Amino acid sequence: MLTLGIDVSKLTLDCYLSEGIEKKARHSCKFQMSNSEAGFKELAQNLAKRGIGIEQMTIVLEPTSQYHKALLYWLYEHKARACMVNPADVRHFAKSLGKYSKSDGLDCFVLAQFAQTRELITWQPPARIIQNLDSLLHLRHQIVVERGAAQVRLSELPSDSLQTVKDCYSKTLEHFKAMEKEVNHEIQKLIDSDVSLKQKHKLLQTSPGIGPVVASLMLVIFETKQFTKSCQVPAFCGVTPKEFQSGTSVLGQTRMTKRGPAQVRAGLRMAATAIVRSKRRSTLKVFYESLLAKGKSKACALGAVMRKITLVAYAIWRDSNAFNGFVS
User: Fold this and answer.
1) What is the mean pLDDT of the chain?
2) Burial class (CB in 10 A: 0-12, 13-18, 19+), 179
3) Cβ proximity of 197 and 129 under 8 Å
4) How many other C-beta atoms lie within 10 A of the C-beta of residue 241?
5) How much is the pTM?
6) Span 259-269, mean pLDDT?
7) Which pLDDT value is given to residue 192?
8) Does residue 105 surpass a pLDDT of 70?
9) How far is CA 251 from the centre of its chain?
10) Phi-psi region of 272 (alpha: psi -120 to 50; beta: other; left: phi over 0)
11) What pairing do the DSSP bridges indicate for beta strands 81-84 and 58-61?
12) How far apart are CA 27 and CA 38, in angstroms?
């Protein structure tokens, strides 16, 4: 199988062309071009000189901030099969090959070999409204982080600090609060502009703990990922348990895998916390209490509720049915 591993950076694309399983990278299969429209065309020309059409192969790359997006859309427009992979998976795969170093030239080789050993899902561009919603949610996350930092800096100021310093920090905090409010309004406005999206967003909020922000985050995941089983959702969000046990001597604590976007897990944690603190009993709260009764720690039980929330949210989105699991 022809595979092309591309290590993306801000300025360059390091590529490795592979025709099968290889133990060592061949210099003749490596090439580099710029991360630009001209570089993309040069990539196609380089492959054409080797007698290969860009649509004949599997091209694999990792997400790198925003630097990979232009290439992804260019490959899609030119009928190429592009696949996005989890960087952590690729790193573990590299170690299994005995590759402990990290460089652009080595990474593209590992990516090409990774594609030779996996069944990968072809990337499909999300709808424009989902792209815009995802961008707004990322912006909101950055604002919330900055707002929290500003809050900490203000609270840590000594009581005898200059009033000018206090005023400056206070204005910075208020600025981020205003920005967060504005972005929240734009997110809701965007969702309301699409009848189907608005309905699903409203249905997701019928689940306990899920508010507008978490519902928006889950919408982006469901609308962009091609899940075939419900168990794939918590796995993607990184809230599935990871055991560490061997024989009778190694009994490590079970933890979450923490794969996928951190902002989604942060939202799920807030949703789970809201459920266990709520006075209104739901099947999710009963589930949490049953785990505590069995001797599970609060952290473990809370993680299990986070996983349940993803399953409930996926069922709501898939079936277009409101949550009805309230006990009292």
Assistant:
1) 90
2) middle
3) yes
4) 13
5) 0.82
6) 89
7) 95
8) yes
9) 30
10) alpha
11) parallel
12) 23
